[in-house]
Amino acid sequence: MSSSRPAAFVSIFLTVTLPVSAQDSLPEFEAPFERNAIEPGSVTSGAPQVPAGYGFSWVVSLGHRGQSHALGGHFCGGSVIGSRWVLTAGHCVVREDGTVVEPSQIQIKTGYELQQGAFYEVEDVLLNPKYSSTAFNTLTNDIAIVKTKRSIDIPVIATMVRPRDLNNVSERVTVLGWGKPRSYLNYLSERLRYLNLKMIKNDDCNSRYYNGMIDEKMICALAEGTDACQGDSGGPLVASDGRLSLYLFGVVSWGDQCGETGKPGIYANVARHYDWIIDTIKDTGN
Ligand code: ARG
After folding, report:
1. Helix (H, G, I), strand (E, B) or coil at 59
2. Ligand 1 centroid to 69 CA: how many Å?
């Protein structure tokens, strides 16, 4: 763990007052859970919990305002990318009729446990104007930014991967969230969990798995029998360049069920939305 970052990283966050500090990769774990191996009513054999103190305080839960996130309030994950800015998925903030949710209807919660943590009211919800869903229910430009009313009180904020860093990113990536353990199980994790995945090149993802549905604004990541799932949407896919600890690389977006053999999970590509993210944070001020 290095104690400082190059100055270049600080300049990314024009309006940010919190320090960006390094963080360790999560510990390796034995064999991700087998397909169908999770017992209903138990997530203990599933994805590992994020250990205390691992620097992932920037991973947050989006919930319905005024509700307990542990009792039905949580609906998506998010990543704090500035003192008042949370990156999430577009579909997390779009209603069925296509309109964007009112800021007053949602809240942000910090903390690894769904039933505890600090709540933040929302001032603005900014959907990427190019967000769209297709006839096949795939999502493109599935990214949005939520602005909180006050600064989010955490020690670490996420560092986004920039387009010019893309080549250095390793194919081993990690997804974090409170989502369902399997598509057919209807409960969330009480605590933030993580899974290590392997990134699949877009060409391979299209030809081998998704038949042309993957565009260059998406990232595919796969692990045997394990995956992000409902409730993980909007949360982070992190990658390492081997030098500067972890980057926020993708946003959980969509998939064909969860953890089906040969079906990667799909993520919005943060680097490909970098300009929109920076402009949005800059234009609307702090
Ligand atoms: N869209 C889902 C959500 O709203 C999660 C999508 C991820 N699915 C997957 N199989 N990787 O939470």
Report:
1. strand
2. 18
Active site residue 233: yes
User: Which atom of ligand 1 is nearest the CA belonging to 253?
Assistant: 6
Q: What tokens appear for 51 in the block? A: 């250990």
CA–CA dist 235, 74 (Å, integer): 12
As given in the structure block, the two tokens for residue 50 are: 């994020």
Has 91 been annotated as catalytic?
A: yes
Q: Which of 57, 83, 189, 233 is catalytic?
A: 233
* Residue 236 CB–ligand 1 contact under 6 Å: no
Give 182-203 as a DSSP string.
Answer: STT-----SB-EEEEEEEE-HH
How much is the pTM?
A: 0.85
Per-residue pLDDT 10s for the chain (286 aa) are: 334 433 333 333 333 333 333 445 555 543 332 222 333 333 334 788 888 877 899 999 999 999 999 999 999 999 999 999 999 999 999 998 889 999 999 999 999 999 999 999 999 999 999 999 887 788 999 999 999 999 999 988 998 999 988 888 889 999 999 998 888 888 899 999 999 899 999 999 999 999 999 999 999 999 887 899 999 999 999 998 776 668 899 999 999 888 888 889 999 999 999 999 999 998 554 4
- For the Cβ of 231 lying below 6 angstroms from any atom of ligand 1, the answer is yes
Please say whether the beta carbons of 105 and 93 come within 8 A: no
Amino acid at 236: P
Which fold is adopted by the domain 56-158+273-284?
Thrombin, subunit H (2.40.10)
